[in-house]
Amino acid sequence: MKIQRLKTNPEYPYVYETHLHTCEASLCGRSSGADMARACKEAGYTGIIVTDHFVYGNTAVNRSLPWTEWVNAFCRGYEHARAEGDRIGLKVFFGWEACYKGTEFLINGLSKEWLLAHPEIRDCTIEEQFELVHEDGGMVVHCHPFREEAYIPSVRLFPEYTDAVETVNATHSCALSRSHNNPEFDVKAKEYALEHDFPQTSGSDIHRIDLLLGGMAFKRELEDSADYIRAVMNREPCLLLNGNESL
Ligand SMILES: [Zn+2]
Ligand SMILES: [Zn+2]
Q1: How far is the CA of 78 from the centre of ligand 2 (A)?
Q2: Local structure of 135: helix, strand or coil
C-alpha cells in the first residue's frame, strides 16, 4: 500500500501521532505494532504514542487473565512497535486508552512496570484513576469527549479529573476517515477546553496503516513520555493536525 506523507511545516518539523492502536492489543486494531511503526516512519512522523484500548475498552486481550498475564499481552503491540521503531529511527512511547462505559481517557507517562506494580488501576474509578496516574507523574487526557456513537451511552465530562483535552481527533475531521465523521465533535471539544482552560492535544485515533495524518507538530524533538507531558502541560507551541493539512 502506498503510504500518504505528512505535509510538514518547517517551523514545526517534529510530528507525533498521539493516539494509535495495534491489532495485538485492540480488538478494533487492523495492523500490528511493527506495521504501524513502519507506516508512521514512512509518512514522516518523528514519533508515535501507542494507546491501545485498556481492560474495559475494546481490548483484544482476554479480560479473565491474571493481571500479570493480561499486562504482558496488552503491552505486546507497544513492544513490537518499539522494537521496530528502534530499528528504523522512530520514537515510540507507551500509553493506553482507558474506558469508563464509553467515556475514554488517554493515559501518558507510565510504563508496563508501573502497570504490573499497580493492579488497582484495573478497576479504579475515574476519580481514583486521576490520583493514581498523578502520584507517579502521569497525565490524563480526555479524548474525543463529544463523540456520539452507539458504544458511548452519553457524553460525560470530568473536568476535575482531566489534565488536558483531545480537541482534534482526525477520525472526526479528516476527509480520509471512514468512521465517526463529524467535525462538530471537535468544535465542541475545543469549546470545552477553552471554557476550562485545558491544554489541548491532537491525535488520529488510528487503527490501521492507511493513516489519517493527524497528531501534534512541535518545534523541538520530544525525548520520552515525560517530555511529551511537559510539552503539553506547559503549552509549548505546536500545531494540532487533523490530517486535512496533508491532503
Ligand atoms: Zn478502537
Ligand atoms: Zn482510540
Answers
A1: 14
A2: helix
Phi, psi of 117 (to 5 degrees): -85, -10
d(CA 93, CA 224): 7
Q: Ligand 2 centroid vs 49 CA: distance in angstroms?
A: 11
Cα 52 to averaged position of ligand 2 atoms, centre (Å): 7
Instruction: Give residue for cell 501518558.
Output: 108
**What distance in angstroms lies between residue 142's CA and the mean position of ligand 2's atoms?**
11
List the domains of the chain with CATH numbers: 14-246 (3.20.20.140)
Give the Å distance between the CA of 147 and the centre of ligand 2. 12
Alpha-carbon distance of 45 to 42, in angstroms, equals 8
* Cα 180 to middle of ligand 1, angstroms: 11
Please write the tens of the pLDDT for every residue from 12-35: 999 999 999 999 999 999 999 999
Q: How far apart (Å, rounded) are the C-alpha atoms in residues 43 and 100?
A: 33
Dump the DSSP string for 14-45: EEEEEEE--TTTBTT--S-HHHHHHHHHHHT-
In the chain, the largest separation of any two C-alpha atoms, in whole Å, equals 48
Q: Which ligand places an atom closest to the C-alpha of 204? A: 2
Phi, psi of 35, deg, nearest 5: -65, -40
- Which pTM value belongs to this model? 0.98
